[in-house]
Amino acid sequence: MQQPPTLEPVFVSDTGPYLVSASIEIKYLLKQLLDNGEIICLYPAGRREPFAISTLLSITDNELLFDASNDIVTNAALIKEGRMLLVGVVNKVKVQFELPDAVLVAYEGRTAIRSSGPVQTLRMQRRDFYRLDIPMSQKVACVIPFDGGHTELSVTDISLGGLSLLGVSPDLPMLVGDTLHNCRIQLLDIGVVEVDMQVCIVIDVTLRNGIKTQRVGCRFFDLSGKMQTLIQRFINKIERQRISRE
Question: If 158 and its partner were Cys, which of 28, 91, 151, 163 is the partner (CB 3.0–4.6 Å)?
Answer without folding.
Answer: 163
